[in-house]
Design a protein that fits this description.
Low-confidence stretches: 25-57
Order of helices and strands: HEHEHHEEHHEHEHHEEHH
Distance between the termini: 44 Å
CATH topology of the largest domain: Uracil-DNA Glycosylase, subunit E
Structural class: alpha/beta
Strand order of the largest sheet: 3-5-4-6-8-7
Helix content: 40-55%
Strand content: 15-25%
CATH superfamily of the largest domain: Uracil-DNA glycosylase-like domain
Radius of gyration: 23 Å
Mean pLDDT: 85
Number of domains: 2
Bound molecules: iron/sulfur cluster
Number of strands: 8
Shape: globular
Number of helices: 11
């Protein structure tokens, strides 16, 4: 984008030199809409002989409306009727996520199931109850964290999300993470882990490690464990899940202590 704008500036300068107007051209980078507004004000003030044109280079100018959300409430309002992928046709409810909008920990699963779809809330039903117990086992209250999924709408019959659906929906999750600004992510299940870490590695190879998830330069510590729905089907995985949670607990409590 910068290249294109620089070319525009050069063309305008070229023609301006030939018609001899005292025109000052600037290529400015702005980081927020406030800055855009400020630039407009500066432009309004620069009347008369010396005229200033400010070309603004900023991805946000070409962003969709939801990307400009300043908080989660705004984001929810702007995306709750999303119809970008076909899942909007079969959903009962859009499932944004719930919990603490200033959480240090964001828990991320795969996609809403039938109960979540009916209630419009993430991790309700038996898997949700188990998640609450898992969090409580490491002294974390459900209300303390933010819980959401990679996809915001239920795939019919709980089938696996399709690549196109992830591609269209994941930017909402990224925006949620930017707004919440957490220190930690707990990825539940192979699907969430592989999507977030951009890998095809199986869950067994992703567990027991601490990953750095980079979001606009901010590093969020990410660990992976089993999805509670999988635990309900495979109780033998409870022990390794407990190991993951204990590992996370050490890190989380150390962070909490450092804040006191
Ligand atoms: S799954 Fe995501 S991208 Fe698809 S309709 Fe729902 S919110 Fe939109």
């Amino acid at each position: 984008m910068k290249d294109i704008l620089e070319k525009c500036v050069n063309y305008l300068k070229f023609y301006n030199d030939r018609i001899g107007l005292p025109l000052e051209l600037q290529l400015k980078k702005v980081h927020s809409y406030n800055e855009v507004e400020n630039n407009k004000n500066v432009l309004k003030e620069s009347q008369g002989k010396h005229q200033s044109i400010t070309l603004i280079e900023e991805e946000n100018l070409f962003a969709e409306d939801w990307e400009k959300s300043q908080n989660l409430e705004q984001l929810l309002e702007k995306i709750k009727n999303c119809s970008k992928c076909n899942l909007y046709r079969t959903r009962t409810n859009f499932v944004f996520g719930s919990g603490n909008y200033n959480a240090d920990l964001v828990v991320i699963g795969e996609a809403p199931g039938s109960e979540e779809d009916l209630q419009g809330q993430p991790f309700v039903g038996r898997a949700g109850q188990l998640l609450t117990k898992m969090l409580n086992s490491i002294n974390i209250l459900r209300e303390e964290v933010f819980i959401c999924n990679i996809l915001k709408c239920r795939p019919p019959g709980n089938r696996n999300p399709m690549p196109e659906e992830i591609k269209l929906c994941e930017p909402y999750l990224v925006k949620q993470l930017k707004l919440i600004n957490p220190e930690f992510i707990l990825a539940l299940g192979s699907f969430a882990a592989q999507t977030l870490l951009k890998t095809k590695e199986p869950l067994g190879k992703l567990r027991g490690k601490i990953f750095n998830y980079n979001i606009s330069g901010k590093i969020i510590k990410l660990i992976v464990t089993f999805h509670p729905a999988a635990l309900l089907r495979n109780p033998q995985w409870k022990k390794p899940t407990w190991e993951d949670l204990k590992m996370f607990k050490v890190m989380y409590e150390k962070f909490k202590q450092s804040k006191i």
